[in-house]
Amino acid sequence: MNEIIKAMVERRSTRSYQNEMLPKEVIDDIIKAGLYAASGRNYQSAVIIAVTDRAMRDRLSEMNRKIGGWSEGFDPFYNAPVVLVVLADKSRPTYLYDGSLVMGNLMLAAHSMGIGSCWIHRAKEEFESEEGREILKSLGIEGEYEGIGHCILGYAGSDCIKIPERKSDRVYYI
Question: N or C: which end of the chain has fewer CB within 10 A?
Answer without folding.
Answer: C
